[in-house]
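pipeline/complex-builder :: batch 7 item 3
reading input block
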Amino acid sequence: MSEETKNESAAGKYLTFALAQEEYGVPVLKVREIIKMMDITGVPQVPSHVKGVINLRGKVIPIVDLRLKFNLPVEDSTERTCIIVVEVELQARRVMLGMVVDYVSEVLNISSDEIEPMPDFGERLDTEYMQGVAKVKGTVKLLLDLDKVLSTDTVFARAA
Amino acid sequence: MDHTREVFCSEIEHRLGRIACDAILDPSPEVVAAQVEAVAADLDAAGMADAAGRLRALAHEPIEQLGARLKTEWSDWRAHDELRGDVDALGGDAELSSMFVAEALDHLGTIEATLLRLEEAPDDKTLLNDVFRPFHTVKGNAGALGLVTVQHFAHTVESLLDRCRSGRHPVGSVEIDIVLKSVDLLTALITDIAERSAGATGKNLRAERLSLIEALEELMANGSSVNRQPKPASDAPFILEPTPAAAPAVPIRPEAAPAEAPSASTSASPTTAPAAMPSAPAPRAAAPMTAGGPPAPPAATNQAPASAQPAGSRESAIDATVKVDTRKLDGLVDMVGELVILQSLIHESPALARIGDERLTRNLAQLRRITTDLQRGAMSMRMVPIRQTFQKMSRLVRDLSRKSGKQVELTLVGEDTELDRKVVEDINDPLMHMIRNSMDHGIESAEKRAAAGKREVGHMWLRAFHQGGSIIIEVADDGGGLNKERILAKAVAQGIVSPDQKLTDDEIHQLIFKPGFSTAEKVTEISGRGVGMDVVRRNIDALRGRIEIASTQGAGTTISIKLPLTLAILDGLIIASGSERYVIPTFAVRESLRPTPAQVHCIQQVPRLVQVRDRLVPLIWLSDLFDTGAPRVDASEATVVVVEDETRLVGLVVDRLVGKQEVVVKSLGDAFAGVRGVAGGAILGDGRIGLILDAHGIVTLIDDSDVAAPAA
């Protein structure tokens, strides 16, 4: 797939949210709902960024803290902290997952010419779960490839 | 399929056979390729272009395999071609078709079970009718849908059944055998057509079907149980109408011999029959048999009260049921579970308690009652009787008995015991392994039994019953029992236990569940590879069940499986540790106590043991085990929950007990499949999730890690 077509397919509506003053975006089509931060039940033997599970109307949903996942400084949750529930593919199965973010900003329509592929930082920066960078109104939004961010090796229990 | 086409097809088959011969005698690729092309051209001309294409594609295969490949390809195509109409017919109306398939498979299952009973009482006309009726229904439905091949095959079998029913043909083991095989084939055929219509490649069942048809027709033509192996069907003619054989049926065994009668008459009757005949099925108290002699069928005696009911009342019970997609049912059960939780949330809400309105309180109590009833009702819908599984097992015993030459009777008890649908599904494999094991290792050969002064016919029991809040399923045999010395010696030889280890009887018995463990001197077709019993253990563990073995050397073995009534709901003890709450299944809890300082024993200054009556139990802090980061409470301040896994006890130190509650078990999902010591999640009264602890996982977790040794 050439970079151009990749950008084209990446164009569309994105839900943007903040993590430690950085702006991120995820495709709106993958977002199931946004809920307020709630008590999370910890699960043992999992990586630290997997906070545990919550009960979403009778469904058990794993929660990933994106700050921990991206090695950003940890902060206590605030009024605006929330959980974005997304649907991703884990081992060829669609599962619901929650991501803890600082706050949700807005839904943006991002066109293909606003998206640039992620520059290569070589060894210094792990960009494998970045789909690209969007420049919208002078700010930079990092577009996440959700399937990669929440891919199996990061969510599955270590003991597996 | 019309006659000319049939002739054409058999001609093609001949020509392919000739090509195969030529390819071997005179391996000249050009000549052979030209011959294949000629056949393909004829096929093209006959409008069978797809077959021609398939053969052409093979023309350049290595010449040594070409002949065989061509034949297989042609036969696969024939199978495909023959079923084409059936597949199309089934693909026509998706809903109608899936109904037909489900119903037909259901019927065939019933027929199989009835046949096994018929084998024991071959003269029971009611049973024969019970076989005939559903068979006729399957045939009729297949015909109505346009499944010509299925209908034709079913028709041939039905003709035989009809002759038996009208007394023009005897019912013997050969007949039962062939009808059983036909039922198997019909099941496979219908499944195959369903799969083909869903786009799968499908299996080639044609040869098997044709040879069965031929065998059926020959059986009818001869009118007696001639023991002949069905010929390979490669050259079997495809006859559309069964030949109306008018040969009189020659009964080879007394028609009216009751099943329980002594077998003097039957044992004599085979001698009057042609030499090739097998003996008629020996009634239960069978004449002495030598190993390797004609195998006799096992007797499946039904002792459950419902099975004694007349057929009519059973049928009306079936009529009153509705088939529901299991996903819908599970969804309903899930939702009811949520309703129950929400109801209790409202019920315990402090805001409501402040209102203190009498009418409201009364209505709430009513709501609670109805919710509880609703929950019970929803749960009971997941429950199905274990009958079908047991019937499958009686077929298994019958087949194994034939294979091994050991004569075995099987008694089924409590087939109407209801279990969770999931349990019934998952109990199938373990039961199968246990029965194989009993047949192979438990039941001795007839000579050995005779030498030990036992009845030569082995006896097995399959029992299901309720006991307390659990369901017990037992597989028992009156065989040789477990040989403790041999098991121990074998375990030592295999390095599973060390030679100086002292084991209790129970511990020795449990050794048979170790992976790779087998005491069989030789691997037989039935068992002995050392897989099997560990599968049993694993499956039963997954069902939250337990296995107990009682065995008396020389007198037999009873393996009991204790299972929870339902998997969806668990009776749990809720405990608090740090900020989290956990659920421990009550069946795994031996007791809980607030230990006095005198009960806690230290090793190297670290409290590690607690004395519970006369036993010393290792202590483990739940916060250490799960690394929650919560500060460790002092053992004498805390509560110790003594958790039991098999024979091991562990004292789990927690902050306090919260209460007892029935919880709805939820899976944590694939993402947490590798987490050990946790069996799932439960939604607690406040809507949060509490992890359900798994006693076995906790014990193995302690073994593997060193969490039991905190820094002093």
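note: Confidence is low (pLDDT under 50) at residues 225-318, 707-712 of chain B.
queue -> next item
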